[in-house]
Design a protein that fits this description.
81% helix; rod-shaped; 14 helices
Length: 308
């Protein structure tokens, strides 16, 4: 009986052992070994020797697997949009109790010197725009006309000579008022433009400065609570902005990101032992089956030897 069992067992052991050694040689040794100045064959192992090649291969696989459509589908999925919506709700609720000023709130994300620069630029831009509007001929003429109109109403109601009805009947009052209107109209026309042109810039800058400083000093909770009716529209604006941003910029972003190089670099930064662990986590079960198949094939060869 033993002459039948022994060849099968030996064949199975040889098949299992050779496959196990072959699998081990994929990962070991980690570095080249030399004997009498000659490199011993199969050192280092396949994985350590081909670390760069494997990194490139994994990088190419990653690039082929990551598609713009799948990323977009994930980013615009109901799950992600629901999380964004929930985050906005939570954020708004927290801000209703936030006593920080708008400046202090922004300072969490933006350095103080950048805030100062933004405020200064905003003041300058607003002042320049308002100053341009104030120095517009149509605007100056409109202001002049309003002032003149108001002055004329006052003049028409005056009884300069104190003659009452008599002055009105004789037209004296009318002629006096007409003279005053024409004189004042000329003076105003000549001076309003000069007044605005000479003083507008300083006045406008002062108004912009006070206005922006006032806004930056408002508590965040006041802003949020006063705008509760606009919150739903604000949320919709943010979500729509996010969707449009994904549609518009995602293809450009993915285009400019070399996914294969990123993955390759990440693999190269891993130690060979880490690469081994990474691969074994994926294919450990399959490698064990290779050992089992080696034992089975060795056993079958042992059975064939019995009949040869």
């Amino acid at each position: 009986m033993i002459e039948y069992v022994f060849p099968v067992v030996v064949g199975a052991l040889i098949g299992w052992f050779t496959n196990k050694v072959a699998i081990k040689m994929i990962f070991r040794p980690l570095r080249a070994h030399y004997l009498f100045g000659y490199k011993i064959p199969f050192t280092p192992g396949i994985i350590p020797k081909g670390h760069d090649r494997i990194a490139r291969s994994i990088g190419n696989i990653g690039e082929n697997l990551v598609k713009i459509e799948s990323i977009k589908e994930t980013l615009l999925s109901d799950n992600i949009l629901g999380r964004i919506n929930a985050y906005i709700d939570d954020f708004i609720i927290r801000q209703t109790k936030n006593g920080e000023t708008l400046r202090e709130f922004i300072a969490h994300a933006v350095p103080a010197d950048v805030i100062d620069e933004l405020i200064l630029n905003t003041k300058d831009d607003m002042a320049a725009e308002l100053n341009r509007m104030l120095n517009n001929s149509e605007f100056i003429n409109s202001v002049s006309d309003k002032i003149i109109e108001h002055v004329e109403l006052k003049i028409n109601s005056l009884d300069i000579l104190g003659l009452g009805v008599f002055a009105s009947l004789t037209g004296i009052q009318r002629r006096i008022n007409s003279y005053l209107r024409n004189s004042i109209r000329k003076v105003l026309r000549d001076n309003i433009r000069s007044i605005i042109e000479n003083n507008a810039e300083g006045i406008v800058y002062s108004i912009c400065n006070k206005g922006i400083n006032k806004v930056m000093s408002i508590p965040v909770c006041n802003i949020v609570n006063e705008q509760r009716s606009s919150i739903d529209a604000f949320k919709e604006y943010l979500i729509n902005g996010y969707k449009k941003g994904v549609d518009k910029y995602l293809p450009r972003i993915v285009e400019n990101i070399n996914i294969s190089k990123i993955v390759e670099k990440s693999v190269l930064e891993l130690d060979v032992l880490e690469v081994e662990k990474l691969l074994l986590d994926v294919i450990a079960n399959e490698l064990r089956w290779i050992e089992v198949f080696g034992a089975i094939l060795g056993g079958l060869i042992g059975i064939l030897n019995i009949f040869v």
